[in-house]
Design goal:
heterodimer; A: 295 residues; MetI-like fold; 1% strand; B: 285 residues; mainly alpha; two-stranded antiparallel ribbon; 11 helices
Chain lengths: 295, 285
Amino acid sequence: MTRHIKEIIIKYVFFSFALVSIVVLGMIVFSLFREGVPIFKVVSLKDFLFGTEWYPTFDPPLFGIFTLIVGSLIVTIFATLLAVPLGVMTAIYISEIAPRAIKEILKSIIEMLAGLPSVVLGFFGMVVVAPWLQNTFDLPTGLNIVNASMILALMAVPTISSISEDALYAVPHEFKEASYALGATRFETIAKVIVPAALSGITTAVMLGMARAIGETMVVLMVAGGAAAIPESIFDSVRPMPASIAAEMGETPYRSAHYHALFATGMVLFFLTLAFNLIADYVSHKFKQTGSATP
Amino acid sequence: MMRWRYLKQSAFFALVRASALIITLTLGGIILYILMHGYSVISWEFITKPPTDSMTQGGIMPAILGTIYLTLGAIAIGLPLGVASAIYLTEYAIQGRMIRLIRVGINCLAGVPSVVFGLFGLAFFVIIFKFGSSILAGSLTLGFLILPTIIGASEEALKSVPQTFREASLALGVSKWQTTYRIVLPNALPGILTGSILGIGRAAGETAPIMFTAAAFFTSKLPSSIFDEVMALPYHIYVLATAGTNIEATRPIQYGTVLVLVAVVLGINLVAILIRGYMRRNKRW
């Protein structure tokens, strides 16, 4: 009987370890609220979210993060527009077209791209892409929306490509065979059978890629330019939320209004990415392709 | 008609190949660029000497050491927690609402932006636990950051151990825990290690989570305890490239540091990829 009790104890020990992820998530939410909520004694929630003036060091300071939210959304949208075609097409190539050897090499390349530290990509954007943009388009600065979106797209491509590839790979073989049997070409099979069948997985991939881009810090900190204003062209600088947090937290006195405002910005960023992740999770479970006609 | 259909197919295939080529060339271009500019800077002195003359001369030894400490610390925290979580999820858990909740939690944790991890580390470890900006606070933050990666990899490794192994062991009257510990875990170990190596790469390259929790702009002495601040490679690159006293003059040092970081991180990744390939070829079941 003691052995039985021992087994039960072991089971619950492992159960408590499995709960650590949820506990950490809870601790993150707790710390963001604890340090972020006090800002709403200084500024109302509406003025915080929709105020267009972010002058945290002025006297009196102004804490409106609307320009930061707009900055985050703009670079994320442009990055997605670049990364989705690239990522999905590459996934199609790897899963449906490439010969075996090339397939393995490409998968490793994508993994290496995913492994490149963000600070390295940000550095590359600063020293290579920025001067090139500046000279080609005759701009005052190459640190702008275009630059940040390009580098962010590069960071989102591995996420989009590898998850899309899994989804394409999971499409049952029978679908493909049935399509060929009807006389469809490989292209028609891919476009009309395989991709539609994998669409929920591809959607999940895009959502997770967007979550990655919106939360990415070093790239936007180094190459987005840092201007807290509503941009008028794609060559304007922006100051996305993560950039603001990372740049300003270091020089903010502990528990000052500015400190609380940065935590509240982190809260907004956290819930934005959480929404993307939950949508991705929902889509992948709700519209899951389950099995094929034949066992 | 038939020709038109095949023409469309060729055009599509060309487009798809072009996408793969763009990605390959971009990665190749970035690595080549870093190699070409960083190569001439790398020397024994660069790797083993601390920075001098307000970081405009000298090497990057303290940053290399700091990154090693932080990464080891992150693994010490992330690996046991991650493997234990994965053991519960694959070996013990019975599908239900609780498990679904845990999985959603892990996915959400994987999606938390790195800068938010930084804020969390600052509020919790630096301030509430009073660790200050230190190796300990940074390692804890990075350890929780890589937790989902390690759980995912470990789960996959545990799942790949054939069910018959477990059944054979249980049929001999061996308890569940002994089966897990003596049979399942050893067989899953290579897979778990590969996944953890990827986690190491991630921890070594992250900047935002350590900015407020561990990284120092410059330290003249090496850390003597886990409560000391350290320099770190990614943060050193950021500091020199954006806030240094003379950004242009320190360009060579920046290239050198980037090369060292990329070599470390991609080297780690490459090792993981090679081990995995080797394992797949030599699978015993």
